[in-house]
Amino acid sequence: MSSIFQRPELAESMANQLLNPGVLDEGLRSGLFLSGLRRTGKTTFLRNDLIPALEAAGALVIYVDLWSDTLANPATLIHNAIYKSLKELQTPGSSVLKTLKRVSNIDVGAAGFKFGFEFDSIGNTDRPTLAQALTEVVDQAKTALVLIIDEVQHAISSDDGNQLLLALKAARDAINPRPNTPGYFLFIGTGSHRAQVSELTAKRNQAFSGATSAAYPLLKDDYVEFLLNLVAMTVKKEKLPSLQAATEAFNTLGNRPEEMLKALRQLLQQNGNPDLFLPVIASTLRSAAASIELEKVEQLGSLAQAIFNKIASAEGDAQGIFSTDAAAEYSKTVGREVRVEEIQPVVIALVAENIIMRRGHGIYAITDQFVQEIWLEERALIEGS
């Protein structure tokens, strides 16, 4: 039994929406950005489910993980991934060509594609633009070309990365609007920094402003059942919790597989009813994870804590956090006068730490709802004591 939980139905549905969009899904051709907290299974889903589903439907897929080398220039990682894929298309007998021929029935010839240009790096200024290169790939392959950038928010950490996103937008705009285009260029970006991923589509100065932004579909009870069956192969049944108790614990842990595995390991060390122990273990682990994020707020200072408190206390998204009334409120909390111009740098720092996220002009929310819940619970205990 494989230890990887696969989601073929979700992947097939997403691939179909991307490659054969209905009227309501046509906006996906402008770009799709999926955000979700770290360790919720995004990369596993991309590699084991979505990419195979896209390829099975006849698409060419280029994948690059910007988290694979955090010291490298993001633009270099993306350039190298595109360059490698284009070289494979020119290589006789490459796995990419075999897959394309098998699923699309396209006769690419024994020698592979013959591009009308030579290149040793997609980024060289004396070579064709990225838009020209990708357009020729689509025209020869006569199918969709899908570029997936994992942890896409790292691309905006440098000028080169921002310029590359603009070049990819130019490729999209050069390929997709053509009335008789034989294929489309589809861009998918995923990221764990929800604040920054959201801004990639919300801010007008971003290359993919207006593209579709959505939350990554979290794992549910079918994953929990799969995990329990997997553990049951080596553990006595009486040591394992019921599916209901395990599912509730998984939800408590923010639907994070690694945290669930940690909880089960701790549970197996206990003697007694697992359905009684597991909720306590899950709650403890959840509080510990939230405490790490709350410590980041404390390290940013008292004004950061006051701003965080205002946003976390709001019902829904918070507004007016830069107002003079808000500054007066912060002053009472901090114990000194807070000037309006002091607020924005602290808000920027909170966003940079992925603690809060911008939802619109002047509208903010806590990035991780579980951190917010823990904070509200702790505040309720203090006020009730």
How is the secondary structure organized here?
Blueprint: H1 8-19, E1 32-35, H2 42-56, E2 60-65, H3 74-89, H4 95-104, H5 130-141, E3 145-150, H6 159-175, E4 185-191, H7 194-202, E5 212-215, H8 221-231, H9 243-252, H10 257-267, H11 274-299, H12 302-313, E6 318-319, H13 324-334, H14 340-352, E7 356-360, E8 363-366, H15 369-384
Parallel strand pairs: 1-4, 1-5, 2-3, 3-4
Antiparallel strand pairs: 6-8, 7-8
Folded structure, characterized:
It is a single chain. The strands form two sheets. Strands 2-3-4-1-5 form a five-stranded parallel beta sheet, sandwiched between helices. Strands 6-8-7 form a three-stranded antiparallel beta sheet. The termini are far apart. Helix 3 (74-89) crosses helix 6, helix 5 (130-141) runs parallel beside helix 6 and helix 11 (274-299) packs across helix 15 (369-384). 52% of the residues lie in helices and 10% in strands. The protein folds into three domains: 8-215, 3-Layer(aba) Sandwich (Rossmann fold), CATH 3.40.50; 221-291; 300-384, Arc Repressor Mutant, subunit A (Orthogonal Bundle). It is an alpha/beta fold and 385 residues long. Pfam families: AAA_22 (PF13401). This is ATPase. GO terms for molecular function: ATP hydrolysis activity.
